[in-house]
Amino acid sequence: MLLRHKNIILGISGGIAAYKTPDLVRRLRDEGAEVRVVMTQGASSFVTPLSLEAVSGYSVTSEILDRQTESAMSHIDLARWADVCLIAPATAQIIAKIAHGFADDLLTTLLLATKAPVVICPAMNMHMYQHPAVQHNVAQLQARGCTLVGPAEGVQACGDVGPGRMVEPLDIIQALSQQFEPLILQGKNVLITAGPTQEALDPVRYVSNHSSGKMGFALAEHAARLGATVYLVTGRVHLPTPSGVKRIDVVSAQDMLSAVMDYVDQADLFIGCAAVADYRAADVQPEKIKKSASTLHLELVKNPDIIQTVAALPRKPFTVGFAAETTQCETYAKDKLVSKKLDMIALNNVSQPEQVFGHDDNALDVFWHDGSQSLPRTSKSALALQLLRLISQRCLQ
Ligand code: C5P
């Protein structure tokens, strides 16, 4: 019940998903939250202010120059009242307006005036969402510290299938609750590796793997939210840097090792989430390898094991590894826990890789030397938070 007695401003903009907001308000109130609704003009074409007044218990407006609303609570007082501002659904229009600091109605104005965290749930046609202009605005909001929840993938009102649906009310509530998590990692330095490494063969080709970096980035985002100073050493991925995280971009396993060694001295916790390539070319060819014979033999040499190097340091941080396995998953994961001298390992069953790589959800089995816990399938974001809570309980108190 992290939302109990919390003051939530729910900003509703004009998308079809607005019809779900009375249910969202009711559920937020069930969690013990106070909810005041602010609508854009367009929103009232999809859901009536009267319905939202009935479920929230407060009057609803969209106007900045509304005398009745201003006399009840001015827009500045409303901005101060909020513990969190939630925009759901957030259309391309409201995202653009917030990103660029517009203040032409009550919602945009109070978003400029508030110091409360802002959580945004985009909902629009998938092609609109993928448009570079929208992506640019979204990235700008994230860089400014706004939390983006969704969009979810699936069938859209227009018939397209893809990312653009507003996430369901229960997931929104989970994301809002995360804003009020106790700062269990305050004062801790956390070093995380993420993404794939790329091992060059010649100037144009490389050996790599399917890792998207999503899990490592989710861990970095939550560790920062939980109060840690976070260093994220990442291979090449297409992900925005989580707010408050120091990101160090690398390409190969050797680069990753040297970046990790630069930061590991101060680390209290090291999480090796990167999918480090086990081998690299013995000799990187200076010129492009020409296609001639029907077969090509590559000589590969073993890469350094980054996590093992960290775990062997005299002043070793609490060290958490990942194991991606397709068979005898538990046995291999436990073997790695012991052989790499880790403190904890999170097993990722990749026997169905299409359900893991690049996806937004996953499940983990976590093992330590005298215990284990299964974290059932959920979003990588929720999973990251659960894993950090588990780590904190095991080691960092
Ligand atoms: O041996 P395997 O690659 O399965 O081990 C996985 C764990 O070891 C992950 O935590 C991964 O980040 C880490 N690892 C590493 N350096 C390597 C290979 C794996 O840090 N060269």
Which key phrases capture this entry?
19 strands; 33% helix; binds cytidine-5'-monophosphate; Rossmann fold; 14 helices; 397 residues; 2 domains; alpha/beta; elongated
Topology of helices and strands:
Layout (H helix, E strand, L loop, with lengths): L6 E6 L8 H10 L3 E6 L9 H8 L10 H6 L2 H7 L2 E7 L1 H8 L6 H8 L4 E5 L3 H5 L1 H12 L3 E2 L3 E4 L5 E5 L3 H10 L10 E6 L4 E2 L5 E2 L6 H12 L3 E6 L10 E5 L3 H11 L5 E4 L6 E3 L18 E3 L3 H6 L6 E8 L3 H11 L4 E6 L11 E8 L2 E9 H17 L1
Parallel strand pairs: 1-2, 1-3, 3-4, 4-5, 8-11, 8-13, 11-12, 13-16, 16-17
Antiparallel strand pairs: 6-7, 9-10, 14-15, 17-18, 18-19
Cytidine-5'-monophosphate binds next to helix 12 and strand 16.
The largest pleated sheet is described as: 8 strands, mixed
Query: Would you state the CATH class of the largest domain?
Result: Alpha Beta
CATH architectural group of the largest domain: 3-Layer(aba) Sandwich
Structural class: alpha/beta
